[in-house]
Specification:
mainly alpha
Length: about 130
């Protein structure tokens, strides 16, 4: 927590945006920084904000790197399945000859694409594509 100081303006912004920012994650980040700006230690901040101490550390690191704008910014990358590249050919195959079980779908996907996936992953892929 060393060398972390906030201007009065930043404290006001933390206080306001912890309730009023449209994104709940930003509200949480602002809550954490606001509690720190009130002189609380990380353990107490984590307890009051309902996050882990590691999350408090991460939010402080984001603030140190990017300031208020960094706290408002998201760099989430949503992973995409390799199977999505084969969606059209899989759909064509499954429409012509629907698999009767998930195990059969797993085997067909492996035969057609060379990609082996477990039943849970295949089930999620099928729901995402054709639910």
């Amino acid at each position: 927590m060393a060398n972390l100081s906030f201007s009065d303006e930043e404290r006001k912004i933390f206080h306001k945006e912890r309730f009023e920012h449209p994104h709940p994650r930003v509200q949480q980040r602002m809550e954490v920084l606001w509690l720190i700006s009130q002189g609380l230690v990380y353990r107490e901040v984590a307890r009051l904000a309902g996050v882990s101490e590691a999350t408090v550390d991460r939010y402080v690191a984001i603030y140190r790197q990017g300031g208020l704008e960094g706290l408002r910014e998201f760099k989430w990358v949503s992973p995409t399945s390799e199977l999505m590249e084969h969606r059209a050919s899989l759909e064509e195959s499954f429409l012509k000859h629907p698999p009767h079980t998930i195990a059969e779908a797993c085997q067909r996907i492996k035969d057609l694409t060379g990609i082996e996936r477990r039943p849970t992953q295949v089930r999620a892929f099928l729901k995402k594509c054709w639910a």
